[in-house]
Amino acid sequence: MPSPAPAGLLLLLAALAVDRAALGARVTALGDDAAVPGDDWLFDNSVKETSFQGGHAENIMDDKETCEFKKSHGLDHMDRYRVEADFLKRATQDPLWRMLVPQYLREEQHGGRPFFVMRSLTCGIDHPVIADLKLGTQSWKPAFHGRPGADDAKRAKMDKLDRASTTPQLGVRATAIQIPPGLSDWPGDSAPSDPGAYQLGGRAAVKKGLVSGDAAWTGGSTVEEFEMLLKAYLPTTALRMEFLEKLAPFIETFSSQKTYRFTGLSLFVWYDARAAGSEEPKLGMAMIDFPHTLGSTREEYGELDSGVLKGLTSLRDIVTSKDAVEG
Ligand SMILES: Nc1ncnc2c1ncn2[C@@H]1O[C@H](COP(=O)(O)OP(=O)(O)O)[C@@H](O)[C@H]1O
Ligand SMILES: [Mg+2]
Q: What is the rounded distance in angstroms from the CA atom of residue 232 to the CA atom of residue 219?
């Protein structure tokens, strides 16, 4: 089946788009559901598709020299900007959360808009292999302390979209996953460094029309397909063990925290292509994308975020079962 040869071109386009908007910063990150018109689902943002990452390319800057990643929102969505920036700032100072999120650094103005500056998660890794997994069993915001959530029309629309994915059953869906080729095509104990050697999987691939015929499973739209995707992303026992180890503190936190309720939250996962096939692969994960967060330390949400918790435990169970079967 064909690999996404235009990856390099798409990344170049993204870089150009961001450069114009973002004063020379470069973009290298791959994949996001906001990259995908129609999968920016929930929130009716206007989306310009420029690349794997592209949806909100004009809202992000990845500064390789300083290892900083900057994010903003459109001027018409500054309320979302404020929620996201405030959450991340507080989370960075909170011992319960700070290991689970990118570190918040400061705020800057660019082109008349505020950007919050975070530590780049993948900085220093020349060839990160990434997965963006959207957590939660529903994609619409509930009411909160008298403030209304999504209206009926939006709920119906989101529920329909969710039913076409693993969101209701698993509490997680594949937004964008970089699928490496089979292990026999890896150069030694590293994964390929050429992005063109990877297939795009998840909803981003569905929206790009890449999932017909033999590639149908790469959409990850059913439970079986999602399991296949996750296993293709983590093809060795060592990678799966590392994934489970890094996942554990997220499950622990979400098993008890009642402060926040997230909508559209992503678990962003990456591993270093270098030595990815060895006994000691380097893998990391963090939560990103918080513009629809409800609750705060002053006004707690008051319940477990059962949707996110379900997604996290589904991930654990799927990745565990792979090794239980294969030993
Ligand atoms: N701190 C970070 N370090 C590195 N990459 C990041 C960071 N935050 C976000 N990204 C990348 O940018 C993409 C878009 O960020 P996200 O917060 O999901 O914004 P959007 O609102 O556009 O979905 C993510 O999918 C990921 O690839
Ligand atoms: Mg996102």
A: 13
